[in-house]
């Protein structure tokens, strides 16, 4: 009962507090759509928030009822848990949520993440393909070794571009982005984006450039240390839509 009351209070707080889910900051001005053809200096994977479906008339949303997803995610040899859709009042959230912990290989080996990565099922498929088809071969080519883990962020984060109050939603807020700061090898060594990217002539530097270039063929946004100082320590990968027909790619 106490938990019920807490949840109810929390939901009310979330519904009426404009600062909920954001960092403490000045009042957010109303968001401005990008002018057609505008290509600002890109900082973070961005996209307009998905339009939320209107609530059914006469049927107020009941936060106590969690809608169980009807979509079933099919990801062969990937270790994940299907989760209920994430819904918020500030545009963050997505359906077909999976929490991925490992990507299995044909050999039976697995490539692990430091913790569950919350992303969409579709995005998880792109990540798994990149790991299996690009990251693993690049590690064997450049380093003569297998990758056993990726150092990633949590995937889903309810935040705006560059954490600005009037920034557009990051693709992280829509479950279509992940950050990768390093790659763990079979011998325990870690190839670090921060430490090894600045050394392009070394094997780790070549490996990082190979996986970055390969990522640009799968994701629509790939930002690394050459993009800006925000990305000196990680690759940001997302599948956001850029341009009118979503064909514009950002690879930096
Ligand atoms: Zn990111």
Automatic annotation (TrEMBL):
Pfam family, one: Extensin-like_C
Matching InterPro entries: Extensin-like_C
Superkingdom classification of source: Bacteria
Signal peptide (residue range): 1-21
Keyword list, A-Z: Signal
Span of domain Extensin-like C-terminal: 77-244
Keyword Signal recorded: yes
Protein's name according to its UniProt entry: Extensin-like C-terminal domain-containing protein
